[in-house]
């Protein structure tokens, strides 16, 4: 076996890839239990209707169909738990009314999925169709109020100066901005923009399999989830079990992007059915129904306004927006805009007035989707800044630099009251402007224009907030209390040296492809000098992993990674004493490397990890009075979030005759602090940018006015593929944080947060000679072409 | 995405497959399954019997028959795209096949399956029209030939009767030059055509002696652009733009998620012009 010693920062191959790329990974759908039953759902064809009757008799007559359940069977278990109980919580199955197309009305359990689907087709539901409220502006009028027991479709309004009354005392910037607008030396740019709804489309759809053991009064739930412990909490709370009565296993998870950061009705319902029918019960989402059974993201319309002087000083940034919540509130639904609010003023030291209304519509629920509020915030801000720069004829980089917090301003408190610990935005942007030869790109654009070609150069910067802390912030509704798992952003890690000298690392995260097995092994290998091949990273099983809140919000490395680092330090410290005893030296002189330990200055004088472990597990061989064994657990509670940032540039060419956009180059300069695993960080940025470009150019959840999802299949929901994207040219600056001992900041969402507006800025820049000022995403050729026609007519 | 129940027959010969189709009006033939299976999974189509011709030997050849190229029923898009013979004599078809779907789809989906499926936004039908392909259909009474111009009847409807199998597509070697150009749904050449145009021209003394143009994506079915064909004949390169302006004669343009009627009408003209320009250059 090869022995790969990796230090933090070393480039290593991903430990998880051999299984995954050979198709030998184990996902929920690969796990087969004896006597399994399977579920299909009857789904509503209407966006809003009263249910008059449900006739299940024909379905029950189909061979193999074992049961059909409706809300009457499960009402006492609902509604679905959520952290932020604002809005209408989702019933486990439609309760008298349906509120979006595809809402589950009944659940058919059969011996195989084909029978279950035939059964679902045979259930006769009589509906009385009601007018639907679809479209943010329409829904906000309350002309059709969706829920009888709520006052309005507007569920809540988040405002920047008073978003958490009683906790943050904030200055209201609105009077100052209003005053600035009265000045006659200011320029005001204002634009209404859509940040369209997206469908997450993880490559592995959601899948659940419940096995209720009556003998032990315990349920095992296999689920494709980012949050195994939270699922256990929610299922326990729902069924009145102690949390140790629920065993959740999230094996390989094929992508999540936030859409597996919810406890869904199906997770509860398969447990219910397994209990009732005394058999394992499975449901695997089909790609088609994912548009109805899994949360969606984004869906904002808002007007961004910048007031500033002609020399580029920004005197106020305002956003007035509506955000689409869908019909029901689930886990974080109404809180998602708050994550945008945290970075509403970006990396700028500027007055802010933000107001986002959360509006219910007769569509699928929205919740966290890669970036969750922050891509929306960055989009509005960075589009507006670009328009402002164009309006005053200033270099878009110069406008940004003029208003940035400067390196010496940190720690810097933003208008909504949070404090960014570190940042060096000017250096980062300058490095990108230089490495991209921005001036050269603009010269190339001029040359192209003289040849009748429409080339554009787009720039955006961003700051993101992730790896949340301090713990008090969790009281806002991010603490899993709703799921019966009171917590507060802490992460944990357990490092065990096995008696043979190999190491097993147990973590409480819920990776879905990010490469935690590699990254965590690097952290431990770096601390202990154990070869990567001798380290196994275990996760996703709530009985053998330490308590953890899951993988989301770009938090895992910065929080659970830091905890694992500290656990490894504890092991190192104990092992140092063991080695000192074995080699008759002093513990301070022990060094760990190359699969063992030696005494500083005498590299020949060494022991292997197997030898150290043997002594650790045989107390009579170790130092007098030392506790046997060699493992340590640590919990890390971050004192602040981390604040990664960066700058992106896109170069595009637009075929003005057809509206087709061709991406010529894409460059990114990100700063996630210290880098543990460069290849994994680059991979995260690649995927993030691809998703941002997907939003900018291709993707859109399109609903018609009756609430039908017109783009529910991948035929009509185009996703970017490798062949649609250029080579990404990545580089970085390194501004470590001292919020955690690794100096790392999250990188999972940064690419997405930085990229959509970079593309739009580039396309608008390309079309500036034609008078185009803005085009709403996705920039499909038809829209680009239409914008050109409209600008020409104007 | 679970089909209704159906019977499956793996045919050993075309004759056997035709026999099953003839005796069972609810049967459907499957070649690559790239379109049939998704439609069955969505329960948009629920044949009682699926007759799989995919295991029949000898149907996957591309052959030079002197005055035409014979493409067998099981020739995949990928094979069409990489065939030097087709590249030499039927560039438009090669381009259309190479811009169909992704590598997986091109390695499973067949040219004949795509033609028989007659999707209104499929690429290769436009090339079959422009190149004057002949479809060879085999039914219970033997084989018959159908001109491409008569083959695409309506959206998802070809001239094949339910008990006929498209066993071969013949591409005449007519000389001249051809080209296919398109705007895909994901932009560039990616995905189904928002608008796709194939053109074939033969040029003598700098003017077009003969030409045909097939349009896909914009209307209810892949169609010959008869107006542009008429306008182009007898013209040199400088007649291309005017000819392209007549691209929509006989075409009913449909609005969809990818474009308004006005936009798609505009694209039809743009791509007719571009395809003609490229075909003209290739012919010269
Ligand atoms: C992801 C994806 C992307 C795609 N992208 C594109 C694209 O960009 N452009 C494009 O043009 N197409 C695209 N397609 C469609 C693809 O090209 C067709 O599905 C495929 O070529 C059809 O051929 P097949 O052999 O798979 O036919 P099948 O799916 O087997 O059959 C399709 C239909 O034709 C009938 N049929 C098949 N063979 C015969 C025959 N020999 N005789 C009579 N009837 C027959 C079947 O009964 C069925 O009704 C895409 C498909 C997928 C799945």
Task: Name some characteristics of this structure.
A: 794 residues, alpha+beta, Aldehyde Oxidoreductase, domain 4, Aldehyde Oxidoreductase, domain 3, seven-stranded mixed sheet, five-stranded mixed sheet, 28 strands, 28% helix, 24% strand, B: 284 residues, Uridine Diphospho-n-acetylenolpyruvylglucosamine Reductase, domain 2, Uridine Diphospho-n-acetylenolpyruvylglucosamine Reductase, domain 3, Enolase-like, domain 1, 3 domains, five-stranded antiparallel sheet, 12 helices, binds flavin-adenine dinucleotide
What profile does the largest beta sheet of chain A have? 7 strands, mixed
Spatial strand order of the main sheet of chain B: 4-5-10-6-7
- The number of helical elements of chain B comes to 12
Got a strand count of chain A? 28
CATH domain fold name of the largest domain in chain B: Uridine Diphospho-n-acetylenolpyruvylglucosamine Reductase, domain 3
Shape of chain B: globular
Task: Describe what you observe in this structure.
The complex is a heterodimer of chains A (794) and B (284). Chain A is α+β, with helices and mostly antiparallel strands and 794 residues long. Chain A folds into three domains: 17-24 and 490-636, 2-Layer Sandwich (Aldehyde Oxidoreductase, domain 4), CATH 3.30.365.10; 35-130 and 203-255 and 260-293, Alpha-Beta Complex (Aldehyde Oxidoreductase, domain 3), CATH 3.90.1170.50; 297-468 and 640-793, Aldehyde oxidase/xanthine dehydrogenase, molybdopterin binding domain (Aldehyde Oxidoreductase, domain 4). In chain A, 28% of the residues lie in helices and 24% in strands. In chain A, α11 (374-392) packs parallel to α19 and α15 packs parallel to α16 (556-583). The radius of gyration of chain A is 27 Å and the shape is globular. The mean pLDDT of chain A is 96. Chain B is an alpha+beta fold. Chain B has three domains: 7-52, Uridine Diphospho-n-acetylenolpyruvylglucosamine Reductase, domain 2, CATH 3.30.43.10; 62-172, Uridine Diphospho-n-acetylenolpyruvylglucosamine Reductase, domain 3 (2-Layer Sandwich), CATH 3.30.465.10; 177-283, CO dehydrogenase flavoprotein, C-terminal domain (Enolase-like, domain 1, 2-Layer Sandwich). Helices cover 33% and strands 27% of the residues of chain B. Chain B contains twelve helices and 14 strands. In chain B, β4 (62-64) and β5 (68-72) form a beta hairpin. The radius of gyration of chain B is 18 Å and the shape is globular. Chain A binds chain B through residues 40, 113-114, 117-118, 121, 286-289, 657-662, 697-698, 702, 710-711, 713, 715-716, 718, 720-721, 723-724, 780-782, 785-786, and chain B through 1-5, 42-43, 102, 183, 185-188, 190-192, 194, 257-260, 263, 266-267, 270. The complex binds flavin-adenine dinucleotide. Flavin-adenine dinucleotide binds at residues 28-36, 73, 100-101, 105, 108-110, 112-114, 116-117, 122-123, 160, 165-166, 191-192 of chain B.
């Amino acid at each position: 076996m090869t022995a790969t010693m990796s230090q933090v920062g070393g480039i290593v191959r991903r430990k998880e890839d051999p299984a995954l790329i050979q198709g030998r990974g184990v996902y929920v759908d690969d796990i087969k239990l004896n006597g399994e039953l399977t579920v299909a759902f009857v789904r509503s064809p209407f966006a809003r209707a009263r249910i008059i009757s449900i006739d299940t008799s024909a379905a029950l007559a189909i061979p193999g169909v074992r049961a059909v359940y409706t809300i009457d069977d499960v009402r006492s278990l609902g509604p679905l738990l959520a952290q932020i109980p604002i809005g209408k919580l989702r019933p486990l199955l439609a309760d008298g009314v349906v509120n979006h197309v595809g809402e589950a009305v009944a659940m058919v359990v059969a011996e195989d999925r084909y029978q279950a689907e035939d059964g679902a087709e045979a259930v006769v539901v009589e509906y009385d169709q009601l007018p639907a409220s679809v479209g943010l502006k329409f829904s906000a009028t309350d002309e059709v109020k969706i829920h009888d027991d709520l006052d309005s479709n507007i569920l809540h309004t988040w405002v920047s100066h008073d978003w958490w009354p009683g906790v943050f005392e904030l200055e209201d910037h609105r009077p100052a901005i209003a005053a600035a607008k009265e000045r006659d030396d200011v320029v005001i740019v204002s634009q209404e923009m859509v940040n369209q709804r997206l469908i997450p489309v993880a490559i592995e759809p959601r899948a659940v399999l419940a096995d209720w053991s009556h003998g032990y009064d315990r349920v095992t739930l296999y689920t494709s989830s980012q949050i195994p412990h939270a699922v256990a909490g929610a299922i326990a709370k729902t069924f009145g079990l102690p949390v140790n009565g629920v065993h959740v296993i999230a094996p390989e998870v094929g992508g999540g992007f936030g859409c597996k950061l919810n406890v869904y009705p199906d997770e509860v319902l398969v447990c219910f059915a397994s209990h009732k029918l005394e058999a394992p019960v499975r449901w695997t989402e089909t790609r088609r129904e994912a548009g109805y059974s899994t949360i969606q993201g984004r869906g904002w319309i808002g007007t961004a306004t910048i007031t500033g002087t002609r020399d580029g000083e920004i005197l106020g940034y305002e956003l007035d927006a509506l955000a689409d919540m869908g019909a029901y509130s689930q886990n974080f639904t109404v809180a998602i805009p708050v994550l945008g609010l945290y970075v509403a003023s970006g990396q700028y030291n500027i007055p802010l007035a933000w107001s986002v209304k959360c509006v219910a519509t007769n569509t699928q629920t929205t919740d966290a989707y890669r970036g969750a509020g922050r891509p929306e915030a960055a989009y509005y801000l960075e589009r507006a800044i670009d328009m402002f720069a164009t309006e005053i004829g200033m270099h878009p980089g110069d406008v940004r630099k003029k208003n940035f917090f400067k390196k010496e301003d940190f720690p810097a408190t933003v208008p909504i009251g949070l404090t960014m610990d570190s940042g060096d935005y000017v250096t980062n942007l300058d490095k990108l402007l230089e490495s991209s030869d921005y001036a050269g790109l603009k010269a190339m654009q001029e040359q192209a224009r003289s040849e009748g070609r429409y080339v554009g150069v787009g720039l955006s910067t961003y700051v993101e907030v992730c790896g949340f802390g301090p713990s008090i912030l969790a009281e806002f509704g991010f603490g899993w209390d709703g799921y019966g798992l009171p917590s507060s952003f802490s992460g944990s890690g357990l490092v065990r040296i096995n008696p043979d000298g190999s190491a097993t690392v147990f973590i409480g995260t819920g990776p879905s492809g990010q490469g935690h097995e590699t990254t965590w092994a690097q952290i431990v290998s770096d601390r202990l000098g154990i070869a990567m091949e001798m380290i196994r990273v275990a996760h996703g099983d709530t009985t053998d992993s330490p308590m953890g809140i899951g993988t989301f919000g770009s938090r895992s490395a910065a929080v659970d990674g830091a905890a694992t680092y500290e656990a490894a330090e504890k092991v190192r410290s104990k092992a140092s004493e063991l080695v000192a005893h074995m080699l008759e030296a002093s513990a301070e002189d022990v060094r760990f490397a190359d699969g063992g330990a030696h005494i500083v200055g005498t590299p020949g004088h060494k022991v292997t990890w197997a030898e150290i472990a043997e002594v650790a597990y045989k107390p009579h061989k170790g130092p007098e009075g030392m506790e046997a064994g060699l493992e340590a657990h640590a919990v890390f509670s971050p004192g602040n979030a981390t604040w990664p940032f960066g700058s992106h540039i896109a170069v595009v060419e637009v075929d003005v005759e057809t509206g087709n956009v061709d991406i010529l180059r894409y460059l990114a300069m990100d700063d996630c602090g210290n880098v543990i695993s460069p290849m994994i960080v680059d991979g995260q940025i690649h995927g993030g940018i691809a998703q941002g470009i997907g939003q900018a150019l291709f993707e859109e959840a399109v609903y018609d006015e009756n609430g039908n999802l017109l783009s529910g299949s991948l035929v009509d929901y185009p996703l970017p593929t490798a062949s649609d994207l250029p080579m990404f040219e990545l580089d970085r600056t390194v501004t470590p944080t001292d919020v955690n001992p690794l100096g790392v900041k999250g990188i999972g969402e940064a690419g997405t947060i930085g990229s959509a507006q970079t593309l739009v800025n580039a396309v608008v820049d390309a079309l500036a000679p034609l008078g185009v000022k803005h085009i709403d995403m996705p920039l499909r050729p038809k829209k680009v072409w239409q914008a050109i026609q409209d600008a020409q007519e104007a | 995405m679970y089909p209704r129940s159906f019977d499956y027959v793996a045919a050993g010969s075309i004759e056997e497959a035709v026999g099953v189709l003839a005796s069972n009006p609810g049967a459907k033939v499957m070649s690559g399954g790239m379109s049939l299976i998704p439609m069955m999974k969505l329960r948009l189509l629920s044949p009682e019997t699926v007759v799989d011709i995919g295991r029949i030997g000898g149907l996957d050849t591309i052959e030079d028959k002197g005055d035409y190229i014979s493409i067998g029923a099981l020739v995949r898009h990928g094979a069409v795209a990489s065939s030097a013979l087709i590249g030499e004599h039927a560039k438009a078809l090669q381009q259309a096949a190479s811009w169909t779907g992704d590598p997986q789809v091109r390695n499973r989906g067949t040219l004949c399956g795509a033609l028989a499926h007659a999707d209104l936004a499929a690429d290769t039908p436009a090339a079959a029209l422009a190149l004057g392909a002949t479809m060879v259909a085999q039914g219970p009474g033997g084989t018959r030939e159908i001109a491409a111009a008569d083959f695409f009847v309506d959206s998802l409807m070809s001239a094949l009767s339910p008990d006929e199998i498209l066993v071969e597509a013949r591409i005449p070697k007519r000389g001249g030059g051809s080209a296919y150009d398109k705007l895909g749904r994901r932009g560039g050449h990616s995905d189904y055509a928002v608008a796709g145009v194939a053109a074939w021209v033969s040029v003598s003394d700098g003017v077009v002696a003969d030409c045909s143009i097939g349009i896909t994506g914009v209307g209810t079915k892949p169609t010959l652009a008869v107006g542009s064909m008429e306008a182009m004949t007898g013209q040199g390169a400088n007649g291309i733009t005017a000819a392209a302006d007549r691209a929509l004669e006989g075409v009913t343009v449909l609005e969809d998620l990818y474009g308004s009627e006005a936009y798609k009408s505009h694209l039809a003209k743009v791509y007719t012009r571009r395809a003609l320009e490229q075909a003209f250059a290739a012919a010269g």
